[in-house]
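Page header: ASSEMBLY MODEL / two components / 221 residues total.
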Amino acid sequence: MKVILDADSLIKLTKAKAKEIVLKNMEAYIPPKVFEETVEIPKEEGYPDAFLIADNLKKGLLAVEKIEENKEAEAMITKLGIRGGEADVFRLYKSGDFDVVSSDDGKFLEMLDALNVPYITPSALVVSDRGFIEGRVISGEDGRCR
Amino acid sequence: MEDVDEPTAIRQFIRLGMMWYVVELYKARKMTLEEAAELSGVSLRGMLDILAEHGVKGNIKMMQQVKALDYAKSL
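Prediction written out in full:
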């Protein structure tokens, strides 16, 4: 599964210490603006989770994906007034072969619904892990992360 | 409050009121996290902390969570 994470989703998964487990089981991408919101700016502000996200990028568990221009996407972004990282998430979804967008922002999810973009929340991402869904026994270490 | 001059207290009062208003708008899904951060003049990461300080962990509707879980089950 190819999932695009917005800043809200990525930060919450990181704070819940569930990010590594979730990222191991899917292809996760962020657009450049989300990288800025979750790594560049928070690093300057001294947030520890920014360093963890940067580490995951280095390990290849997460990738910053470039966005290709899409006039149709731009028109929708302008019409709905989508901003910042959320606009970049939508641009990225429209520019590539992605399955779903992950966000925990109610208004953004309403927008995605209106645009017929499939979405998944961070908590649903955690339970989407096959081990959890199939009721398999998970390791103590993984269990503590959940 | 004895050591705070009136203009400082008024500025602080206005800022606290604005923060409360932004948090309420976010809670009611009238604005996104991006918009809340922009209006508050803080980073997106900082806005998440402000929301947490106000006891707001999220703003998604039950139906949105159900839809997301249905998607997760379909994988």
